[in-house]
Amino acid sequence: MHIYYSDLAAFNSICTVSIFVEMDFDAVAKYSVLHAKPSGLTLQYGTAGFRTKAENLDHVMYRMGLLAVLRSKQTKSTIGVMVTASHNPEEDNGVKLVDPLGEMLAPSWEEYATCLTNAEEQEIQTILSDVCQKEAVSLHQDAFIVIGRDTRPSSKKLSQAVIDGVSVLGGQYHDYGLVTTPQLHYMVCCWNTQEHYEKATVEAYYQKLAKAFVELTKQAFSPGDSHRSLKVDCANGIGALKLQEMECHLPRELLIQMYNNGTKGKLNHLCGADFVKVHQKPPQGIEVKPNERCCSFDGDADRIVYFYNDAAGHFHLLDGDKIATLISTFLKELLSKVGQTLTMAVVQTAYANGSSTRYLEETMKVPVHCVKTGVKHLHQKAQEFDIGVYFEANGHGTVLFSKAAVEKIRHLAKEEKDNQKREAAKMLENTIDLINQTVGDAISDLLVIEAILALKGFTVHHWDAMYTDLPNRQLKIKVADRRVIDTADAERRVVAPPGLQEKIDGLVKKYKLSRAFVRPSGTEDVVRVYAEADTQENADTLAH
Ligand code: 16G
Ligand code: MG
């Protein structure tokens, strides 16, 4: 692994011998001018970091480079900076910081990020000093930052601005260049927990996943079997490049055909997981034959949804809820074979289809918890269990295994005398190795899902038939100030403005199997509406 120093780092060592002891504010100021903030612009570190038009982000990137160095010094760990705007249009971009174990940035630091981003140039110094003081950042401590970016035309230049910020504070860095968001999260975790994870290279990531996939599916594929083929819509994004690299390591029994690989279409335009989920139809650029299993990644490959058209030409979506159900059913079956009483739960948000919740609780007898929208909330809740399966309906999710559960499973996979139990434990062990536990990962999730379907001998139709989604509708509405809406109970109830919840309750009562909520978006200046009911017509009317 090489560590790169930019010319700025060299500049620092010449200009300020004392860089590791105190901040070189002259250099910070000099480079702040080169990464000037457009006047009057205010941004907020939201659910998934900063996101806006790429042309307004140069100063944000530079300042996030600065902040990443302080966070790295404070945590005495490697910190990640990912340049991406996920499923947003190509003209947008964004950035988020990744904390030591590959998780989202701590909330108090989100506030510093917002404050630093909106500061005028002459205030930067004070804010940096304040953060150091409040968080007891030791400037003597070394800082190491890993950086990644998606395929947007603006990403390369913006990640250079991050590097400027890192270097001006004397931080060292490694630029992974083009990677998926979950790959960068995984790399951060590798750097900080080297005894548990493989080497912090993208190649090692492929090898680890491929090995686990081959081991897990050993019994599923027999020689002479026909291929299991899967069509993947890569949203014209980074997922195409990285899935292609992954594919070289996979067994030939799994035939992956990639579409929207970025050579023709525009990123996220009429394709990708968000498009498919929101519009409930197949993406452009892919020919969907009846009953063919297809899936869509989003622009930075941290979400995946499956879909197919049935023989009558009807579109079927298998979203994050269906994925959570498939995975948790599989895990529960293995756990009962192993004969272990490990706690397992599924974590969802208010967007989870009512049918999925009912199926999990009533048929599968798996406890379900509902939390606020946003990966960090799901991740946190899932950590409370030996096995926490979390998915947002939009297709972002993963499975977390507690340290104790991993140890127990690995021990059984080696030492258990009963053949059947040992084999089940081995399958659990391979599932642990196949899943990216740092964050939702489209490539890793795809492999987990394909392995389970192959092992169960399931077609996409079998999987879909586990339960039937209630018809639902999502709308977004522009209002003067979305912040007047305040919610409680994991966003399922409105507490302000007064009277609104009563009105919603009154409407919901008019329909069967109905449910509805409104919440202010954390990523766009809109209010979101969700409604479900017994028929599509009723769900639509209720939402409107
Ligand atoms: C972000 C979140 C996603 C959430 C979505 C909600 C992360 C990494 N991503 O994309 O989890 O579902 O925002 O957006 O946290 P909204 O608040 O605009 O509905
Ligand atoms: Mg994404």
Note the main attributes of this structure:
alpha/beta, Alpha-D-Glucose-1,6-Bisphosphate, Chain A, domain 3, disordered N terminus, about 550 residues, about 20% strand, binds 2-acetamido-2-deoxy-6-O-phosphono-alpha-D-glucopyranose, binds magnesium ion
Short description:
This protein has helices spanning 7-15, 25-34, 58-75, 107-118, 124-134, 155-168, 181-192, 202-216, 238-247, 273-279, 320-338, 354-363, 375-382, 403-415, 419-434, 442-456, 460-464, 500-508, 536-543, and strands at residues 50-53, 78-83, 92-98, 144-149, 172-178, 228-233, 254-259, 294-297, 304-309, 315-318, 344-349, 368-371, 387-391, 397-401, 472-477, 486-488, 493-496, 515-520, 527-532.
What does the model show?
Helix 3 runs antiparallel to helix 4, helix 11 packs antiparallel against helix 15 and helix 14 packs across helix 15. Strand 16 and strand 17 form a beta hairpin. The chain contains 19 helices and 19 strands. The strands form 5 sheets. It has a 5-stranded mixed beta sheet with strand order 1-3-2-4-5, with helices on both faces. It has a 5-stranded mixed beta sheet with strand order 7-6-8-9-10, with helices on both faces. Helix content is 41%, strand content 19%. It is of the alpha/beta class and 544 residues long. The chain starts with 6 loop residues before the first helix and ends with a helix. It folds into 4 domains: 171 residues, Alpha-D-Glucose-1,6-Bisphosphate, subunit A, domain 3 (Alpha-D-Glucose-1,6-Bisphosphate, Chain A, domain 3), CATH 3.40.120; 115 residues, Alpha-D-Glucose-1,6-Bisphosphate, Chain A, domain 3; 145 residues, 3-Layer(aba) Sandwich (Alpha-D-Glucose-1,6-Bisphosphate, Chain A, domain 3); 72 residues, TATA-Binding Protein (2-Layer Sandwich). It binds 2-acetamido-2-deoxy-6-O-phosphono-alpha-D-glucopyranose and magnesium ion. The site of magnesium ion has 7 residues, from loops. 2-acetamido-2-deoxy-6-O-phosphono-alpha-D-glucopyranose binds next to loops.
